[in-house]
């Protein structure tokens, strides 16, 4: 793809080990630039996507570990155009904590577009958070599009990232 006309920062949030880094890696296929910013304790990777015939560069950020320092977390969120909320369907506490993740993000960025990902659906026999509960949380977080994903099989991954790209682009260009 040729040069991107727009660049958007997207933060991927959720508890440790829900699969944030794995989802980003799966989506970017590790072919793209990936970097670790030590001062913030964050990783980011970039990927170009096409929305409405326009090339957009997505900058996908996630926290390595969950640093407690407020300054660090502020820098992580600053300038985000959108958010990907992730929980692990096998760990109900990771589902419950997304409300807190959203509150923290909103304090720094205000309301930004988002999508909700119920990850690790390949682990069917260990699943504790149902589809219905996922849809309910999506409503509670502001009517977010909801996706069931697996960073392991790749199910739903492309669709989820494409969706957030579309919403951000259309919001930014008021379409
Ligand atoms: P994080 O970035 O949110 O902290 P990671 O999470 O991407 O590091 O993933 C944490 C662990 O969950 C990793 O296992 C990873 O392979 C696994 N994982 C992530 N997504 C999925 C998924 O969709 N399905 C399954 N089965 N496993 C997944 P390890 O063993 O490396 O700690
Ligand atoms: Mg990680």
Task: Provide the CATH topology.
Answer: Rossmann fold
SS-based class? alpha/beta
| Biggest sheet descriptor | 7 strands, mixed
Number of domains: 1
Written description of the protein model:
There is one protein chain. With 175 residues, the chain is an alpha/beta fold. The chain has a single domain, classed as Rossmann fold (3-Layer(aba) Sandwich). Helices cover 34% and strands 27% of the residues. The protein is built from six helices and seven strands. It has helices at 20-28, 70-77, 92-96, 98-109, 131-140, 157-172; strands at residues 6-13, 34-37, 42-51, 54-63, 82-88, 114-119, 146-148. The chain has a seven-stranded mixed β-sheet, sandwiched between helices. The longest helix has 16 residues, at 157-172. The radius of gyration is 15 Å and the shape is globular. The structure holds guanosine-3'-monophosphate-5'-diphosphate and magnesium ion (MG). Magnesium ion is lined by residues 20-21, 62, 64.
Give a nutshell description of this structure.
The chain has 175 residues and is α/β, with parallel strands linked by helices. It is 34% helix and 27% strand. It is built from six helices and seven strands; from the N terminus they run βαβββαβααβαβα.
Question: Which tags fit this structure?
Answer:
alpha/beta; Rossmann fold; seven-stranded mixed beta sheet; 34% helix; 27% strand; binds guanosine-3'-monophosphate-5'-diphosphate
Task: Outline the fold blueprint.
Layout lengths: L5 E8 L6 H9 L5 E4 L4 E10 L2 E10 L6 H8 L4 E7 L3 H5 L1 H12 L4 E6 L11 H10 L5 E3 L8 H16 L3
Parallel strand pairs: 1-4, 1-5, 5-6, 6-7
Antiparallel strand pairs: 2-3, 3-4
């Amino acid at each position: 793809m040729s040069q991107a006309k727009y660049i958007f920062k997207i933060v991927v949030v959720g508890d440790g080990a829900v699969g944030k880094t794995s989802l980003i890696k799966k989506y970017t296929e590790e072919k793209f630039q990936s970097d670790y910013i030590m001062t913030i304790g964050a990783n980011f990777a970039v990927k170009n996507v096409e929305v409405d015939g326009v090339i957009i560069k997505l900058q996908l950020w996630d926290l390595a570990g969950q640093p407690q320092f407020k300054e660090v977390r502020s820098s992580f969120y600053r300038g985000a155009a959108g958010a990907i909320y992730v929980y692990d369907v096998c760990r109900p506490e990771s589902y419950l904590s997304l409300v807190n993740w959203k509150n923290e993000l909103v304090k720094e960025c205000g309301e930004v577009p988002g999508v909700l990902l119920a990850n690790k659906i390949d682990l069917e026999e260990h699943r504790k958070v149902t589809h219905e509960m996922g849809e309910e949380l999506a409503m509670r977080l502001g009517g977010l599009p909801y996706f069931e994903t697996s960073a392991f099989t790749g199910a739903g991954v492309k669709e989820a990232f494409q969706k957030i790209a579309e919403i951000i682009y259309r919001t930014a260009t008021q379409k």
